[in-house]
Specification:
The chain has 205 residues and is an alpha+beta fold. It contains seven helices and seven strands. It has a seven-stranded mixed β-sheet with strand order 2-4-1-5-3-6-7. The longest helix has 25 residues.
Length: 205
């Protein structure tokens, strides 16, 4: 894909920036675990099994356009501190990645509270399309909500940036509370660990 950035000062990075910023989700999460990183990593479903029995998440083009429109308009208006798509790994992984350090910016935690009829597992790890996590100053909330309403785009307030842990509650139950440093160490070291394991396995053959 090719795009034109009219003003480089409006480029929005994926990581959370400022303590106290509001975190919201554009789009909505469905029960889309059957073809996902969770299905592969946790339940051990193979690619062949996914192809045979998995249900591909439904793509609503109108919703996709609405989500992208709101994110673009908010960015061009200078309202956003960060924007991160929910893709591989789903909602929980996107939130964790948003907390990690980057570009001389220290890592920072987040306090998240969600309400959903989905199970915590589906809510955290489904890979439903057309979702973007945004963060911005509290003063921008009304304007972002106005953009979402105008585009008929679902928007949910998730919580705020702050602390040194990623805390996620589903209803009244806290389902994740992990130091960001611990999550980031696993994330940054995963490729090296995988390659090392493959080398050791090859050496035993």
């Amino acid at each position: 894909m090719i795009g034109l950035v009219e003003d480089v000062r409006r480029v929005v990075q994926p990581g959370f920036k400022h303590v106290g910023d509001v975190i919201v989700l554009l789009g909505k999460t469905a029960d889309d675990l059957s073809i996902s990183e969770y299905a592969t990593t946790i339940t051990g479903v193979s690619s062949e099994q996914m192809i045979e029995t998995g249900l591909v998440p439904a793509l609503d083009l109108q919703l996709e356009c609405a989500v992208q429109q709101v994110c673009l308009e908010a960015a061009e208006a200078g309202l956003l501190a960060s924007a991160h798509d929910c893709a591989d790994g789903g909602f929980a992984v996107a939130l964790a990645e948003s907390c990690f350090s980057s570009l001389n910016r220290s890592s920072v935690g987040a306090e998240i509270r969600t309400e959903s009829s989905l199970s915590p597992t589906s809510l955290l790890f489904s890979e439903s399309p057309s979702r973007i996590i945004l963060s911005f100053p509290p003063a921008s909330l009304a304007l972002v909500e106005e953009l979402a309403a105008r585009a008929n785009c679902p928007i949910s307030i998730l919580g705020h940036v702050g602390g040194d842990r990623l805390r996620i509650s589903c209803g009244d139950e806290e389902v994740i509370s992990v130091a960001v440093s611990e999550l980031e160490n696993v994330w940054r070291g995963s490729l090296a660990q995988k390659l090392e394991a493959e080398v050791m396995a090859a050496g035993r053959e």
